[in-house]
Amino acid sequence: MAPIGKLYSVPSMNQTTIIKATAAAAGVEFEEPEYKHYEDNKKPDFLAKFPHGKIPALECANGLNLTEGAAIARYIASIPPNSGLLGGTLEDAALVDQYVHFAESEIHLCTEFIYLMLNGYMPYNKAIHTTMTERQIRGFNSLETILLTRTYLVGERLTLADITVASVIFLAVSYTLDAPLRAKYPNILRHLDLIINQPKLKGVFGQPTFVEKAAQYTPPAKEKKEKEPKQPAPAQAPKKEKPKKAEEDEEEEESLVPEEPKAKNPLDLLPKSTFNLEDWKRAYSNKDTRGPGGSLEWFYENFDREGFSVYRVDFKYNEELTLVFMSSNQIGGFFNRLEASRKYLFGSIGVLGEANNSIIAGALILRGQDVKPVVEVAPDYESYIYRKLDLENAEDKAFFEGALAWDLEIDGKKWQDGKNVSWRFFF
Amino acid sequence: MTPIGKLYGHPRQPQTKVILSAAIISGLEIDLPPFEFGVTNKSPEFTQKFPLAKIPAFEDNEGFKLVEGTAIARYVSSLVPDASLLGRNAKENAQIDQWVHFAETEILIPSNNIYTGIVMKYLPGFSEEQHKHYQKGVERSLKFLEDYLASRPSGLLVNGDLTLADITLAAAVQRAGQTVCGVKEREQVYPRVFAHFAKVINDERIKHVFGEPGFVDEPLAFRDE
After folding, report:
1. What's the order of all strands across the beta sheet hosting B5-8?
2. Which residue, of A82, A148, A391, B45, has the greatest Cβ tally within 10 A?
3. Which residues form a coiled coil (chain B) (predicted)?
């Protein structure tokens, strides 16, 4: 079948996974043009088609321009006459709708909200964190009950309901649905396993990462600098908390979060550094990368080469790589497995080249001078080669900047699809 | 006419209004049994049928059960294709989906969070920053909508007739008018958005479902208490 159109999105979004899985299950193809969020969605030709400026956005060959992830997935599912993805009867179609909506509002909304707060995109608030956690658990409980007596959610075959639920659970198990909780939901896990391993969907999801303990709030470091002047920002821009409020939250956290029994990470014992990784991540996500006032400029002004180092990373087995989005998922999986080192690591790694002729490469900014203690938390860290970069060296510097600006080119292979450690769930 | 089933919901809940309107436009009847929040949805009869115990919840005469407001609204709208609530072809269908989802996520949810936080005072952790964040989101979306409606000769979202998208948007915009949009905003900043609202709720068939708009004169302000 000819591609039905072009999808503008970023791989890390939950909606993108659902759309891709739906397309794979339906046997529908679409193109994924190069897209850089915060840049391309401000350009006149994009806004002419999609005035609201949000992604995912689908530009169809038949003239339809569609937004809202759920609507796009549904439209794709409806294209082939017998895909069965939307159920066979009006009642089954309604049930598919019901589960899609349930997955979004009762489960994914909570994961996303918690993520936004824990990563500084919205002011952290313990009461909201608790409310969202409880709401999500209520959703998990219901889902477990439903799946007690069902293999697939609607009828006896794969539908958009299964794809959507599996997708939000796939994310949740890496973030909020931790080991003690998962022990209560064998049927949710069974369903997840069934769906992500469907032959047609192989390669869309990759391997799930199972978090041991649900993500917790880390108050910002006390040696944080003066508030930066407010920047014109997109809706998801982080807001710095008022200093007083941050202190109150910190006090609460110390008394409520139990002491971790295991030994302190040696990376925490390094001498204090003036370079704050969280500030860097915010600068990187708020500013353009290159140019005056950009994040690279900020980086060179603030970087502490004693306390931190910059590395190049290359995948060892590039000849195995096939489709670009599958390689992109592999990077995502690698980042998921690096979760425990999130405090010590920033990465910008991408797929360069094209299907069956690509490489995975990128740059890391990490705490300390040695890469191993930071990345060995990931069981597959030895699948990559690490080489320390010297930013005084012109070639190394160009590589580093290209990896962060997503315009890196190696041996004629151009950057296609990338992931940043701090942006796993959305743009 | 026999009602098609029972809808457990509250007449002032936006999702319930949308479902009832969809039924009426389709020429269908739905029973709305008396519902007491905190009582009915905690009773064993209810929770056995609807384990998540949220409203709206729908059960037809054959025992078919459905939850999630937009899913129920869509199902009801699908029962009478001639009513064209879901559009006349695949493209219109997709566009209706798009607007329903947009109305819910970009307008109803943030407006409702402000409503629940300030008016109902029932949103733990609701803060001034949250308020500003939601308000900003709603304003961005209303501006986009205002510009889009300028291109619509019928003043409706998808084609020349009332669809599920228009009804859903009206319910969402009603909440915006109760929280984020005062007189000045409704008349001067988003006149087309509120003209669309008026067009929908003045439809004789569903006027009584939407009731009094309950709009504010000034946008609600956050007050630390």
Report:
1. B5-8, B57-60, B65-67
2. A391
3. none
Q: Say if pTM beats, i.e. exceeds, 0.80.
A: no
Residues B18-34: tens digit of each pLDDT: 999 999 999 999 999 98
Is B91 in the A-facing interface, judged by CB distances under 8 Å?
A: yes
Is A42 an 8 Å CB contact of chain B? no
Average of per-residue pLDDT across A81-100: 95
Residue B173, H or E segment: helix B164-177
Residue A145 belongs to domain spanning: 90-205
Residue type, position A84, single letter: G
In order of their start, the domains of chain B are 5-83 (3.40.30.10), 90-210 (1.20.1050.10)
Q: Are residues A124 and A146 in the same domain?
A: yes
Report the domain count for chain A.
Answer: 3
ipTM: 0.86
For chain B, the 3-state helix, strand and coil shares in percent, each to the nearest 5, are 55, 5, 40
| Chain B residue with minimum CA distance to A78 | B90
Label residues A260-287 b or e (16+ Cβ within 10 Å = b).
Answer: eeeeebebeeeeebebbbbbbbbbbbbb
DSSP secondary structure letter of residue A61: T
- The domain boundary residue, chosen from A78, A98, A123: A78
What amino acid occupies position B40?
A: T
A290 CA to chain B: closest CA distance, Å?
A: 28
Q: Model confidence over A156-184: pLDDT tens digits?
A: 999 999 999 999 999 999 999 999 999 99
